[in-house]
Write the structure tokens for this entry.
Amino acid sequence: MVIAIVKYGMGNVASVQKVLKKLGYQSIITNDQDELKKADFILLPGVGSFKKGMENLNELGLVEFLTNEVLVNKKPFLGICLGMQLIASYGNEPEHIKGLGWIEGDVIKIVPKNGHRVPHLGWNTIKTDVSDAFYSEFDNLDYYFIHSYHFNAKNPKDVTMWVNYDGELVAGLQKDNMYAMQFHPEKSQDEGMILLRKILEKYAKV
């Protein structure tokens, strides 16, 4: 299986590729549509603002292309951090702007009530639905976060993982062939690698 890591100027692609290599998967870092089309799996990482991320995808001509690959052709997809946020209907960083619209919801600023600092930075414990066989083994494990905005999902059924940061925030999403997580599995040591492997193995063995 070949995994295409989308190169769109929003960071952390090399660290993601390094972890994929450790897991035994072949990956390419690209924004070339022909290479993305040939790939078996698309991974959209990223750090930074929602607006800049969407501007870069638009400038590269990837918005309509990726939407067709993921929603129409049902190519397996994983979004990480900003890559998760961009699949929302709308973002608000730094202003209201249309997202990819693959999973209904909007990305809004974290507003702590009890003095928690923003961004939400560092290790935190995720919660999952323990009745869900796919995610139950990750309940109460720690993952690495860095974000100032969070995904406010319209449909609770799309949410697979949560994190408490002065209130419950969405930590993971899944809908059909789309997976997404707010935390950085590539920075989350063994627990992150186990989660990545489980998602990838659902589609192809190494």
